[in-house]
Write a structure and sequence with these properties.
The protein is an alpha+beta fold. It has one domain: q2cbj1_9rhob like domain (Jelly Rolls, Sandwich). It has eight helices and 14 strands. The strands form three sheets. It has an eight-stranded mixed beta sheet with strand order 1-2-12-7-14-5-4-3. A four-stranded antiparallel beta sheet has the order 6-13-8-11. A two-stranded antiparallel ribbon has the order 9-10. Strand 9 and strand 10 form a beta hairpin.
Length: 297
């Protein structure tokens, strides 16, 4: 369902207008439909599906019922196709315009909800996590790119539009995840209308780090994978003592959008700095299904 924060991306004509900036300021997010075209998406999927990226570096994060969404997280873009996605103009420049300043790559993660077993993501703000990693201000955002169709049946993202205006909410451990104070969330649902972010493959949701969001378990027969890139403003460099294992400011070299299709590196993931989940103080990961060859890269 289209909203005032819902826009269509056209490579030839797209620019960040006052209307888009206003939508992000008021709603806390914008959707860019078709940010990645079918050819780009096919190449991205080939890397995610046909390499050792997932079996070598993937792990689960249990929800309150014991079911697990699975993920792979890296802290540096790298030089493979997914690195070009993290660094391309249409993602990075859009993020800079929305946040009002230079950004750097904070992290990228592949979130995987497998058919019938993929768990839910509890209500949270990204800043609820990142505050613990030394970010002084919520001057950061995430870019959720649908790899598969995302709908209510397979656990699409849910957001409370405008909830970024309430500031940071206290977070605590919920099973293996870090979740927002649920009593406060229930009250905020009466103020901000819960909205389901149903998306087609290639659509992208840019959302502020204080927007409350969650997703249900995948009870359908269809997979729900998404690539989520996070960017922090240069001016918001984390406190050095709290930042690890996440990065402090590192200049990000942008590449043209054409770099995604031009990139020939599909399998070399060196330099991506994959997260060892045991070092992340905001989650309690389950690594029992990881490949025996999984190592910290």
């Amino acid at each position: 369902m289209a909203t005032e924060a819902d826009f269509t991306y056209d490579e030839a004509t797209f620019e960040i207008t006052d209307k888009i900036l206003k939508a992000f300021k008021e709603q806390g997010y914008i959707i860019l439909r078709g940010l990645f075209n079918p050819e780009e998406l096919k190449k991205i999927k080939s890397v995610l599906e046909e390499t050792d990226l997932v079996p070598k570096h993937g792990y689960g994060i249990p929800d309150a019922t014991g079911r697990m969404p699975k993920m792979v997280l890296w802290r540096a873009p790298g030089t493979d196709v997914t690195g070009m996605v993290c660094r391309c103009e249409k993602v990075v420049t859009t993020s800079e315009k929305l946040l009002g300043g230079e950004v750097y790559h904070y992290s990228t993660k592949l979130m995987m909800k497998e058919p019938l077993i993929g768990g839910r993501q509890e209500w949270h703000q990204d800043y609820g996590y990142w505050y613990q990693n030394g970010l002084l201000f919520p001057d950061a955002l995430s870019v959720f790119v649908a790899i598969d169709r995302c709908n209510k049946a397979n656990g699409c993202l849910q957001v409370l539009p405008g909830s970024h205006k309430v500031g940071r909410i206290e977070h605590k451990s919920v099973a293996g995840q870090t979740g927002a104070d649920l009593e406060r969330v229930e009250h905020l649902k009466k103020v901000f209308p819960l909205t389901y972010m149903e998306m087609e493959p290639g659509d992208a949701l840019f959302f502020h780090s204080n927007v409350l969001h969650a997703s249900d378990a995948n009870n359908s027969s269809n997979r729900r994978w998404a690539l989520i890139m996070a960017y922090n403003r240069k001016s918001n460099n984390p406190l050095e003592s709290l930042a690890p294992p996440f990065p402090r400011y590192t200049p990000l070299e942008k590449v043209p959008n054409s770099a995604i299709l031009d990139c020939t590196n599909l399998t070399d993931f060196s330099g991506k700095e994959f997260l060892d989940p045991t070092a992340d103080k905001t989650v309690k990961a389950d690594t029992s299904n990881r490949s025996e060859q999984a190592t910290k890269a």
